[in-house]
What does this fold into?
Amino acid sequence: MRKLIEVLPLQFRVLYRQFLLRVIDLEALSIQADVVGYLGQFAGILIFYSLIQAVGALFSTLGPPPTPQALHIMAWHAEHSSIEIMMLVVGLISVITWDATFPDRRDVMVLSPLPVASRTILFAKIAASASILALAILALNFASSFAWSLVLAGMPDALRFLPAWWLAMIAASAFLYGSILTLQGLAALLLPRRLFLRLSATLQLAAFALFLSAYFLEPSVLDPNLFSDPNNHWILASSPTYWFFALFNQLNGTLPPQLAWLAQRATIGLAVVVTGAAASLLLCYLHTMKKTVEQPDLIPGAGGSHRSPRFGSALQTAIVLFSFRSLTRSRQHRVVFAFYLSVVFAIALSLLASELSSTGHPPLREDFIIPTLVMMSLAVVGLRAVFALPISLTANWVLRTTQLSPSEKYIAATRRTMLLLAVVPVWLLSALLSLSLRPWHHVLAHLAVLALLGYIFAELSLINFYKVPFTCSYLPGKTNIQVAFFGFIFVFLILAISFAPFEVRSLNDPALFASTMGAFLTLAIALWLFNRHRARSAVLYFEELPEVLIQTLGLGAIRPSDADLPSGRISAAGE
It folds into this structure.
């Protein structure tokens, strides 16, 4: 393998290594600038899921042997679910690595003066992105594919099942990623650079919402009788997951003849998007590389008069609007915030799917309280994490020289920003999801608890946060977003699961509920007074400075004898 790599041109190998380090934005995710550590965490999560799937598949054989029809339905569910998960993971990768395959300003400014062909840059970037996809496909299927091949096919049919599985997963991943590349490439070619950068943010968020919505809200049509129902034809025809499910069964030799059109649609779709992605990428590298240096990553607002809404004082309004526009216009901050919002949005969609499938007006239960508490906490923690990432260090001097108000005014504006951009949206989303629940007084009581807890989370996030959002530099490795994310999920999920039964009991006990609300209100007021008191003497800072460490050589323990030194230097050596 090493000899095969050494055959590749040196320029390609050097660029491939650099682009692989930049596929994931380490400036945003910041794990000690260690891309290997991040990829190890990423692969570990997928491997863990694959092992769970494999164990579940093996445990399904412990019971009595299923009937042929039950085995057939179980096989279709397992195959379709695996393709759905694979496409969801690839979709989220495409959101996180948005624009990573296309040339950026750094590529143009650094590589254009060098004797490096555009095609070399293109192939190196494609190879780097393909490596991430290959890692995801391998980690997510390495155990589950073997387990399902033994359970569903057995020997010797597993020798055909296994290659069909891997080919279907690779084809589904290539289709989805190629679709995103085609969409981005066409937008970059057809639109002016300024408009493309502005639209890119909308496309990124829309793709993110589409992938999660398709996974949680797509109707399930896996009974053989439902496939032949004309009412379900539109679902099968419009869903790529069913296309590649049919392609897998065609490769495995188990596809009914009446569903061959679905496999044909998968083949045609894959050919179209691969051709479109290749053509759009090639044209972008040939015709748009010079335009990338003309526009910054953070897009200025369009000209003309704009009337902005008021969010309190002029300072509060300015910081709220600055934070909102930073989130919507900066790719780096969108990616980090989307990392947290992905869980929030997934929980909301799962609750919505549960409500759509229920009849009548179900009561408020723990399975609604726990997700809403997790959503609120994640939104606050995600926004607090993204507040620490700077927009432009060279522009921080503007904010330093224009600090005309006391620091407590800026910290109050940051509090209002946290409430408006994190607490209020999640509270409104929870209120909309609870419209079908009854009784109303329980729903309103839970919303009151949720609002109070959201305020408490916001106050906790402001402790020792004496800076304007998006304006302070940070030290690489200090953010550690992945560790904080999964650590917080683990800790707060336990707290939410423990608190939900208590809240259900308090909803049926007015005295207990009143005491609970009184305790939360007291805690909220205490945190507000504490932050307000600390803010009066706080000094805003714009630079994260490393701690001063004194390095010692350890020479004090080696005391030379008096006989080895001149008489006039004995005391100096001792010191």
Q: What stands out?
A: The two ends are 58 Å apart (CA to CA). The chain has 23 helices and no strands. Residues 26-33, 560-575 have pLDDT under 50 and may be disordered.
